[in-house]
Amino acid sequence: MTLSYLAKTAALLAIWIGTLAAQAAQPLAKADVEAALNAAYTKYKDLSEGANADYIPALAKVDSAIYGIALVTPQGDIYTAGDVSSEVSIQSISKVFTLALVMDEQGPEAIFNNMGVDATGQVFNSIVAIEQHKGAEMNPLVNAGAITATSMVSGDSRAQIWNKILNYYNAFAGRELSVNKEVFESEAATNQRNQAIAELMYAYGHIKSNPDQATDIYTEQCSVNVNVRDLAIMAATLADGGRNPVTKKQVMKNENVSEVLAVMATAGLYDDSGKWLYLTGLPAKSGVGGGIIAVSPGRFGIAVISPPLDAAGNSVRAQKAIADISNALGGNPYAVEPAM
Ligand code: GLU
Asked: How far apart are CA 320 and CA 199, in angstroms?
């Protein structure tokens, strides 16, 4: 290999890296974002597919007409369309942030070793998936892995653990969140299946002690109320490497963000996670309260709330609106142009 060949290769590499850096640094244009949000809002406003979750009785009573969209950029710009003030319970979206907390406390290998980071191929609250590999070979976004992750948050008392979790969520949202008591009580009265899941994870040694407490705290974390703006800021914090772009605070360790996003890409939308990734390329997480967050790393965090769900448990409007908006704004991280 000649020296001039090496020099030429180095120069080309530098240009290529420069192009990538320029692409990554390009902020979204205000008019484009507003147009994309308004178009998606209008397009799906009158859609009437899907139904509220009802296996948690309080969720069946939530207003099905709530429909809001929010997008937040790493520069801290907030764009919204529709209902930005109505709150719904965060439900499974909370799993992402408890996962991040455990990683921050114990490192990503603690999650990897205790429950794994693979899709189960089963429903989110599957008992079969636990039995198949004795509680391993799953991930922290299905109930067994999520309740186990909650059990891994350190603290001397229930109150201390709970306050730590809620404060961590608050830092992502940039404000003090509160618990929807009605949803918490409703789920606590009907969550026998989650109690069984926690007992099994305890029996197989993944939950080290007090499975009842882990289930109870998990149920409370799922009952935290959020509006669509909160969710978009939480998503944007992941999009901006763990720094809340609105409060400008680094709220999680930067080195753990890529692992959290990878788990979201693998298992964020229940049994339709593969289909979702195929259509959008975005790490995302949905909850049975009707919210979905999605992250375009370095570009934006987006959220939609609309309670009616499809058969897989994902908000119908949220999936459609996020996919349209992201595709209009070039949010798919896998969609790149040839460098030269
Ligand atoms: N709290 C709910 C449960 O454990 C969360 C479900 C979800 O949003 O996927 O069933």
From this structure: 37
Alpha carbon of 91 to ligand 1 centroid (Å): 5
Cα–Cα distance for residue pair 272/278, rounded to 1 Å: 10
The residue range of the domain holding 207 is 3-329
In this predicted model, what pLDDT tens digit does every residue of 8-64 receive, in sequence order? 555 555 545 444 444 455 899 999 999 999 999 999 999 999 999 999 999 999 999
Residue 334, in any domain of the structure: no
Work out the burial of residue 227: count CB atoms within 10 Å of its CB; fewer than 13 is exposed, 13-18 middle, 19 or more buried.
buried
125 falls within a domain: yes
Q: Is residue 336 part of a domain?
A: no
The reply to whether 174 falls in a domain is yes
Q: For ligand 1, is residue 143 a contact (CB within 6 Å)?
A: yes
Nearest CA to ligand 1 atom 6: 92
What is the number of structural domains in the chain?
Answer: 1
Measured from the Cα of 289, ligand 1's closest atom is: 8
Of 93, 120, 124, the residue with max ligand 1 atoms within 8 A of its CB, to mutate for a pocket test, comes to 124
pLDDT digits (tens, 9 = 90+) for 181-225: 999 999 999 999 999 999 999 999 999 999 999 999 999 999 999
Residue 228 belongs to domain with CATH number: 3.40.710.10
Residue 336 has phi, psi (to 5 degrees) of -120, 150
Mutate to test the pocket of ligand 1, among 54, 59, 88, 92 (most ligand atoms within 8 A of CB): 92
